């Protein structure tokens, strides 16, 4: 396969969103001959383009390659600082950027807990009690 | 009998100051005249008329006496200079003046009539009209000041009488006369509820009651017309006609391969969708209907309706002369996809490059010219040599 050619990054519909302390825009990436550009690479390029001090406050998402290849379009956000990013960004994007960690919730455990709670009525549905009950049942 | 009110009547009210407004002499003389007139009428007129007239004239004389009694001390004061009008007249003063002039003029007019003089084209008529006009003009101000004046009167009657005649504009705190929203009267009169059993809506604003409801067939007619209009706007013939009529410059769109109407419509819809996504700054997954439509369009029909057409394909058979020599040389133009398929079937050895399309289920191998031939469809050709590279549709 041809080695990674350089890609062109253009931004459109630029807007400064003061309410959410960020700058938002539509990103157009031209990458002829390549499948698509990774998000990390795009983040780097945007950080250089907009001269941001902290590349961790750049978020990109929603990239779709156009029919025929060679061009993809997506969205980009640059927050003023990481604190406002942590405040306003949805969890999954923070996890993608490495600013938050995913809480592993076992689906089975949750379902079991719910089924146990169905049998008790009122405020007595405390977790410790549930575990105990579960234990007793077994 | 001379008319002594004339010199007063002829002066314009705007230029008068309070001092020269009313003279003592004309009032007294006017009263004397009245008495004379009374005597005269008693001689000439009928008994009922006479009695009435006498009564009316008597009223007038008493009125005049009253006015005189009030006016004389007032005039004294004015002569002394107690009431200064350096700042001009206030609204109420001017209104009083005007009313007084009007009364004067009326009295003079009656006098003339009583004497039997002709009143046609007499300057007093003009005077009357003028004053009447002024009074009409200042009536709206009266309305506006109504609230303030009421309040002042209440104050005046409330406070035991020694208050002098204050000018309303020199009250220290004008905010006392601000409107009181608690005293607002509701537009909707609740009293009419209990009168009769029928509910009558309050008539606040004029409304139109349209009696004519559009009947069902008319509605369907209108809808059909709208539909026809929409369909016509989409058809290419109508568009051509319209652009011709308007004199628009001719648009020449390049057609590469076969252009299907559905495909173009679907593409324009997808584009519109992408535009909206950009505006909303969010990605929305395709709905079921949209997915079904796209799937239907991507099915292989007639070379995928030109979706896979590529310029390279069109010229590749021109470039690779070697391959062409083996099979039959195609002399047709490489325009339609139909001819393309024909070319393929005739020269199976010639390989065309198909671009790898993302999202398509069909995986058409992208090969160079030296690899073995592709079999398309059910190959009945003997030229089909070698292994067929997996080509799934």
Automatic annotation (TrEMBL), chain A:
Record keyword Nucleotidyltransferase present: no
Region spans: Disordered: 103-138
GO CC annotation: ribonucleoprotein complex; ribosome
Pfam families assigned: Ribosomal_S24e (PF01282)
Top-level taxon of the source organism: Eukaryota
GO biological process per UniProt: translation
Biased composition regions of type Basic residues, renumbered to the chain: 110-126
Electron transport keyword on record: no
Molecular function in Gene Ontology: structural constituent of ribosome
Alphabetized UniProt keyword annotations: Ribonucleoprotein, Ribosomal protein
Family: Belongs to the eukaryotic ribosomal protein eS24 family.
Name of the protein in its database record: 40S ribosomal protein S24
Species of provenance: Adiantum capillus-veneris (Maidenhair fern)
UniProtKB/TrEMBL annotation, chain B:
Source species, domain of life: Eukaryota
Pfam entry (one): Sas10_Utp3
Listed InterPro entries: Sas10/Utp3/C1D
Any one Gene Ontology BP term: maturation of SSU-rRNA from tricistronic rRNA transcript (SSU-rRNA, 5.8S rRNA, LSU-rRNA)
GO cellular component, one term: small-subunit processome
Residues forming coiled coils: none
Chain positions covered by the region annotation Disordered: 373-393
Name by which UniProt lists this protein: Neuroguidin
């Amino acid at each position: 396969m041809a080695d990674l050619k350089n890609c062109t990054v253009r931004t459109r519909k630029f807007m400064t969103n003061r309410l959410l302390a960020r700058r938002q825009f539509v990103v157009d990436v031209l990458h002829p001959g390549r499948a698509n550009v990774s998000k990390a690479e795009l983040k780097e390029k945007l950080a250089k383009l907009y001269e941001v001090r902290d590349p961790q406050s750049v978020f990109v998402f929603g990239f779709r390659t156009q029919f025929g290849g060679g061009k993809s379009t997506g969205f980009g956000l640059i927050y003023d600082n990481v604190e406002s990013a942590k405040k306003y960004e949805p969890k999954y994007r923070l996890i993608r950027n490495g600013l938050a960690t995913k809480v592993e919730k076992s689906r089975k455990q949750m379902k079991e807990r719910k089924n146990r709670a169905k049998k008790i009525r009122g405020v007595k549905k405390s977790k410790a009690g549930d575990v105990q009950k579960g234990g007793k049942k077994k | 009998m001379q008319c002594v009110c004339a010199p007063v009547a002829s002066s314009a009210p705007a230029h008068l100051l309070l001092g020269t407004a009313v003279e003592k002499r004309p009032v007294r003389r006017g009263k004397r005249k009245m008495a004379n007139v009374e005597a005269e009428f008693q001689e000439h007129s009928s008994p009922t008329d006479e009695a009435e007239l006498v009564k009316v004239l008597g009223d007038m004389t008493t009125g005049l006496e009253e006015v005189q009694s009030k006016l004389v001390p007032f005039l004294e004061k004015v002569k002394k200079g107690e009431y200064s009008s350096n700042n001009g007249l206030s609204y109420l003063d001017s209104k009083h003046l005007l009313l007084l002039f009007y009364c004067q003029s009326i009295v003079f007019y009656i006098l003339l009539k009583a004497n039997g003089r002709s009143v046609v084209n007499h300057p007093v008529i003009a005077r009357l009209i003028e004053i009447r006009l002024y009074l009409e003009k200042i009536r709206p101000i009266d309305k506006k000041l109504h609230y303030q004046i009421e309040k002042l009167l209440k104050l005046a009657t409330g406070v035991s009488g020694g208050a002098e005649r204050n000018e309303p504009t020199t009250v220290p705190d004008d905010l006392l006369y601000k409107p009181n929203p608690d005293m607002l009267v509701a537009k909707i009169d609740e009293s009419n509820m209990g009168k009769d059993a029928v509910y009558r809506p309050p008539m606040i604003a004029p409304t139109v009651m349209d009696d004519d409801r559009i009947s069902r067939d008319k509605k369907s007619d209108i809808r059909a017309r709208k539909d026809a209009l929409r369909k016509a706007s989409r058809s290419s013939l109508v568009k051509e006609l319209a652009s011709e009529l308007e004199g628009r410059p001719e648009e020449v769109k390049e057609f590469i391969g076969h252009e299907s109407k559905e495909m173009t419509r679907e593409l324009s819809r997808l584009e519109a969708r992408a535009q909206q996504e950009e505006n909303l700054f969010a990605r929305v997954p395709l709905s079921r209907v949209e997915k079904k439509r796209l799937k239907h369009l991507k099915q292989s029909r007639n070379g995928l309706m030109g979706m896979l057409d590529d310029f390279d394909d069109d010229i590749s058979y021109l470039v690779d002369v070697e391959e062409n020599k083996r099979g039959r040389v195609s002399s047709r133009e490489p325009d339609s996809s139909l001819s393309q398929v024909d070319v393929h079937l005739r020269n199976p050895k010639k390989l065309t490059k198909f671009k790898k399309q993302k999202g398509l289920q069909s995986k058409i191998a992208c090969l160079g010219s030296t690899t073995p031939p592709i079999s398309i469809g059910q190959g009945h050709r003997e030229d089909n040599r070698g292994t067929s590279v997996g080509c799934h549709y």
